[in-house]
């Protein structure tokens, strides 16, 4: 497929996404086998940013090494964020889940995750992971409208060990978010977390990513915020 054909294909996929996660994972099912190839087109560097931020901020209990740490890759897709974590030096075990069974199948062939399962994250839909288990939870490019609901952040925090970190990015500008500010509800949730003493947002970094693909920028995102929370 030529560069132009790939851009058209991405535009076509993006145009099928809606505000409904159940619907969207079926779209991801259909493009799972071509996802990595297409992702390369827009030089998407969120996974690398998340991985670098993780390695800079990982706190290791005395006498332990990164190898003994565990991470959970939320909405893991084909495993691009987990791959970036490994590349950045995360040598611990990484578990993952994704709502699309086909994305999970592709990720499983890469054998980056210790375990990877199909699970759709929704409010009041218990996660198949034990609480206080992980040193790191990463959510790469999946906290968008019609993807992982922001309310689920509470559930992900519960999975962290004390001192663990949660890293995610959200889009600032979307055409699908009713108020055009996807980060608004995240900010409210983070403020509540802080008030309740559940976690503290110690890095809130706004990035402009040069995605280099107008259709993608127009339809989905032009600014990202990266959040880093320590509990
Ligand atoms: C843009 S992809 C990002 C994948 C991967 N994290 C990465 O960095 O490449 C979004 C992923 O979120 C998954 N997804 C969307 N909504 C979800 C939900 N509510 N629960 C679990 N996975 C979800 C999709 O199936 C898709 O694989």
Automatic annotation (TrEMBL):
Gene3D superfamilies: Vaccinia Virus protein VP39 (3.40.50.150). Transmembrane segments: none annotated. It comes from the Eukaryota. It comes from Clavelina lepadiformis. It holds the Pfam family Ubie_methyltran. InterPro entries: SAM-dependent_MTases_sf. This is Methyltransferase domain-containing protein.
